[in-house]
Amino acid sequence: MKSFFCTALLCAALSLAGCATDAALPIDTSADADIASRRNPNPNPQPNGDERLAGGATTVFLTDEDAFGQPAPNLSPASLLRHNQGDSAFGAEFAAIASAGHPGGLGPIFNHTACEGCHVGDGRGRPVALSGEMNSLLLRISLPGMAAHGSAIAVTGFGGQIQDQAVAGVQPEAKFSIVYTEQPGSFADGASYSLRMPQYRLQNTYLPFPGGALISPRIASPVFGLGLLEAISEQTILSFADPDDRNNDGISGKANYVWDVQSQKLVLGRFGWKSNQPSLLQQNAAAFNGDMGVTTSLFPDESSAGQLQAIAAHTPEVNDVTLNAVVHYTRTLGVPARRNTNDPTVQKGKEIFNVAKCASCHIPSMQTGTIQNVPEISNQPIFPYTDLLVHDMGEGLTDNRSDFAANGREWRTAPLWGIGLTSTVNKHTFFLHDGRARSLMEAVLWHGGEAASSRDYVRKLPKPDREALVKFLESL
Ligand code: HEC
Ligand code: HEC
Questions:
Q1: Which of 9, 93, 262, 266 has CB 3.0 to 4.6 Å from 257, enough for a Cys bridge?
Q2: What is the pLDDT of residue 307?
Q3: Residues of the chain with pLDDT under 50
Q4: What is the best residue among 87, 116, 118 to mutate for testing ligand 1's pocket, by most ligand atoms within 8 Å of CB?
């Protein structure tokens, strides 16, 4: 949520100030273009954008704890008004029965009372160390195999997600806890590190939980810049894919195709840790439903449907005007500008990022296409550091769960823009889909599968080069 005093005008003024200080500095994007061309003989033309303007014209220049929660500075007055309406709903604490300041419709079972309760400061959630309220982590659950269209098979009596909270008179489906086991390792120079492997346990299940069911933990991900990701053309994303690894670089990358509830067909997935949602509309409506027990026209049945504690059918608890405002909000949050691009250590780190082939998946730059009626995010050069494809990340990160075309080992390349501001906004540095990594370096060391050679390259680097790589990531 933005602090309301930062109006579009003020943000524009800030961005002008930001540009003015180093406007004359030369920008070199040739290395990025070179990497992309290695992935594909006919790469999407790389935009000649200024890499500091990570979100094109939506870039914001705040570097404090509100950095992820600003409206894009280029919003028209009408667009900003809708953004602010969406912001209110995103920040609102829902209650079972509406009262002043609290929209109704929460539950009967849920994970949190507010979108922002998990997407803290429009950024990422943190896992809880041991047992306790899970807050921003949720557990997707499924039975082995695939249901219609390749979707995961729901667990009878529990659905597709454990809701660990409930309104009065209703039982939460279960509580859960995490146990971490340390796995020691070392860099080539002998310096040691340790990675913590999580294990999830369900407790107090309201019904016996089937033995073979799969559990896929997911931490709340940042929500800024998502409209830009939605605006990237399908053709551009497919140009990054190389499912059969024809160029023999060990990195394939494939598009996930997921069920679109509105059009009733399989379409390209872009959102969620496995690119398991096709659009911000469906992602957000699914979040209202699954995470908060709030129904919409897209998902009119309560998430407790099929349970003994189901409640009678009723009209959608959030109407289309509000749902669309929330969609507009998640489309139009500005992206923080890159920082320290002229620091020699950062530049060294960027070189390592390219040589280590990180940029083969975390594709630095591309151009957005057009989203109708949202010119602010359309046709922008952007620097998201993702290809939105899913990649085999090895056994260490597997959740064994298939999500449409993505198998248990496959995850969406996480966008890296803004990642260096995580500690400022979210007061922690837990990364990856379940927050198991305690630092950026631990996140890199967890990479396996298609990214194993990148990880091994980093393991062999001398300490100053490892530090430069981290400095570069912190500049994003
Ligand atoms: C219980 C915590 C929780 C709550 C509450 C929650 N989310 Fe999320 N959100 C998540 C998790 C976890 C993911 C990743 C889901 C996945 O990978 O399947 C996510 C993903 C998203 C994404 C996609 C981000 C991306 O990078 O692809 C959007 C957008 C989003 N949520 C919006 C919302 C909105 C809007 C609400 C309120 C209606 C909301 N969320 C409520 C936990 C939460
Ligand atoms: C084969 C594709 C691929 C390559 C190569 C790759 N990554 Fe990743 N990266 C991913 C995927 C997929 C994830 C998400 C994994 C997860 O959450 O389980 C990720 C996650 C990350 C994260 C954590 C992001 C977050 O939001 O939690 C960081 C940091 C990162 N990568 C940095 C790097 C660096 C640095 C390199 C090079 C040394 C690299 N990656 C190479 C695919 C790749």
A1: 266
A2: 83
A3: 2-45
A4: 118
Q: What is the pLDDT of residue 310?
A: 74
Q: What is the per-residue pLDDT for 37?
A: 37
pLDDT of residue 461: 98
Which CA distances in Å does 327 have to 186, 223, 283?
44, 11, 9
What is the residue range of 266's domain?
8-94+223-274+318-474
Structure tokens at 19: 């540009």
Q: Does residue 406's CB lie within 6 angstroms of at least one atom of ligand 2?
A: no
Type of residue at 134: M
- What does DSSP say about strands 137-142 and 381-382: parallel, antiparallel, or unpaired? unpaired
Whether ligand 2 lies within 6 angstroms of the CB of 338 is answered as no
Tokens of 17: 């100030």
Residue 380 in domain: yes
Ligand 1 atom with least separation from CA of 280 = 29
Position 121 in a domain:
no
Number of domains in the chain: 1
Residue 449 lies in a domain: yes
Question: What is the whole-number distance in angstroms between the Cα of residue 115 and the centre of ligand 1?
Answer: 7
Dist. CA 304–CA 53, nearest whole Å: 44
Q: Give 46's DSSP letter.
A: P
Residues near ligand 1 (Cβ within 6 A):
90, 111-112, 115, 117-119, 136, 138, 218-221, 223, 226, 271-273, 276, 280, 283-284, 287-288, 291-292, 326, 330
As a whole number of angstroms, the distance between CA 242 and CA 112 comes to 39
Is residue 350 in some structural domain?
Answer: yes
